Amino acid sequence: MKHHLIRYKTKPDRADENERLVKAVFEELRGKSPEGVRYMTWRSGDGTFVHLVEIETDEHADVIPGLAAFEAFQNGIRDRSIEPPHRDVMTVVGHYRMLDEQPE
Fold first, then answer.
1. Which of 6, 58, 78, 96 has the fewest CB atoms nearer than 10 Å to its CB?
2. What order of strands is seen across the sheet that includes strand 48-55?
3. What is d(CA 66, CA 78) in angstroms, rounded to the nearest whole number?
4. Would you state the torsion angle of the CA atoms of residues 73, 74, 76, 79, taken in this order, to the nearest 10 degrees?
5. Strands (E), 44-103
6. How far apart are CA 89 and CA 46, in angstroms?
7. Widest CA span in the chain
8. pLDDT by position in tens, the chain (length 104)
9. DSSP class of residue 41?
10. At 27, which helix (H) or strand (E)?
């Protein structure tokens, strides 16, 4: 299982647009209900967005990038952002009721 954390800050006048595009990705995910991925996004008051993506196996890696709504979101992300997206591969150290699998 892989976990990716993506973080960026949008321009103040583009944060609502970015949120709308992110919500469209979730709408398409709910409609298609793909297996093998989990996805969550947070938005802070200063226009910072944080995305947490969990991918069960490499065969699921293209699920989110393959969505039409994700392609629309990606189109212009650098124009909407003050800070470009930064992606880190993360390792779960622990959690409490945050992920579907049982805590370690």
1. 96
2. 37-43, 48-55, 2-10, 81-90
3. 19
4. 100
5. 48-55, 81-90
6. 24
7. 42
8. 899 999 999 999 999 999 999 999 999 999 999 999 999 999 999 999 999 999 999 889 999 999 999 999 999 999 999 988 999 999 989 888 776 654 44
9. E
10. helix 15-32
Q: Which of 66, 40, 34, 43 is nearest to 53 (CA)?
A: 40
Structure tokens at 25: 């990705």
Two tokens at 55? 């991918």
Alpha carbon dihedral 53, 49, 29, 58, in 10-degree steps, equals -20
The encoded tokens of residue 64 equal 């989110």
Amino acid at 65: P
Q: Write down the domain spans for the chain.
A: 2-90
Residue 38: both structure tokens together: 């989990």
Tokens describing residue 104? 């370690």
Angle at 86 between CA 90 and CA 22, to 5 degrees: 95
